[in-house]
Amino acid sequence: MTNWMFWALGSAVFAALTAILAKVGVTGVDPNLATAIRTGVILIFVCVLVASTGAARGVAQLAPRTWTFLALSGLATGLSWLCYFRALQLGEASQVAPVDKLSVVFAIALAALFLGERLSWHQWVGGGLILAGAVIIVLKPV
Question: What are the residue boundaries of the structural domains of the chain, listed by start?
Answer without folding.
Answer: 4-90, 101-142
